[in-house]
Design a protein that fits this description.
With 266 residues, this protein is of the alpha+beta class. The chain folds into two domains: 125 residues, no CATH class; 130 residues, no CATH class. It has five helices and 18 strands. A hairpin with a 4-residue loop joins β10 and β11. The two termini are 24 Å apart.
Length: 266
């Protein structure tokens, strides 16, 4: 099989992976505080150059050559997938249980069945017990949660207000405060769905006096639909191009090679 066929196949798979990322971005245009994902596409040679010092075999040796195929070293592939934490626009909702964070490095803390998670989606509600929870039912955690394992609870008839620093008031009396988490290394956050991020407890710290909470507002998705549609069309056209290359290799070039070989044999 021709080396070019391998290259075209690998490039097509890379574009399929890119299409998955773009499709997910477009599907979450209306998800509050959703952060778009993107990919970095590189070739095998560049990725190999970055990690070869960590490999158990020395480069340019006979043993190392067994693991290298120079014919596919330049096949493009996804070398990195990352989340763009640039803040989206702030939109007024007039719902007193909606909260927007005006800094892209801050997150609310919530408790899920899988453990503590971070989120920037401040669309909250009260459950039947008067506890502040996300729309999925996950409890929103207060600043003192790790000291007393408490939650944010209200009397059903209380008037709830929150100041810019995340201090929570019921009928004008301060009752608690949001745990506003700042990741030490945002790249270590892992998306888990439902607008949640997984993080080690050592990877974030409590921020006080943040001056970043806006009650009655929501942060919208930072996805730019025009940009995503352009990327979608570009990826689709590249898939079609690679498809033609693969067809040319399998049909035209192989048929020509077989015909010449037959004539030579005669």
């Amino acid at each position: 099989m021709q080396n070019g066929y391998y290259s075209a196949t690998g490039a097509m798979v890379t574009q399929f992976n890119r299409l998955d990322v773009i499709s997910n971005n477009l599907a979450n245009i209306n998800t509050p505080a959703f952060k778009r994902d993107d990919v970095v596409i590189g070739d095998f040679s560049r990725i190999y150059q970055e990690v070869r010092d960590e490999l158990p075999l020395r480069n340019h040796t006979r043993d190392a050559a067994k693991f290298l195929n120079r014919s596919i070293d330049r096949v493009p592939q996804v070398s990195l997938e990352y989340t763009n934490f640039t803040q989206g626009a702030i939109k007024e909702s007039s719902n007193p249980l909606d909260f927007a964070l005006k800094r892209d490095d801050l997150f609310f803390l919530v408790e899920t069945p899988q453990g503590i998670r971070l989120t920037q989606n401040g669309s909250f509600t009260l459950n039947n017990e008067g506890r502040l929870v996300t729309k999925e039912g996950y409890a929103v955690l207060p600043a003192n949660h790790f000291q007393n394992q408490g939650y944010i609870d209200f009397d059903p008839d209380a008037q709830i207000s929150v100041d810019n620093n995340g201090n929570i008031y019921a009928d004008g009396n301060i009752v608690n405060a949001f745990y506003l988490a700042q990741p030490i290394e945002p790249r270590m956050l892992t998306k888990e769905g439902d607008n949640l991020y997984k993080s080690d407890l050592e990877n974030f710290r409590l921020v006080q006096d943040a001056d970043a909470v806006a009650q009655g507002f929501l942060e919208v998705s930072n996805v730019n639909p025009v940009r995503e549609m352009v990327g979608l069309i570009e990826a689709q056209r590249l898939v079609e191009m690679y498809q033609k290359v693969m067809t040319s290799h399998m049909d035209d070039l192989n048929n020509e090679a077989i015909s010449k070989l037959a004539n030579t044999s005669v």
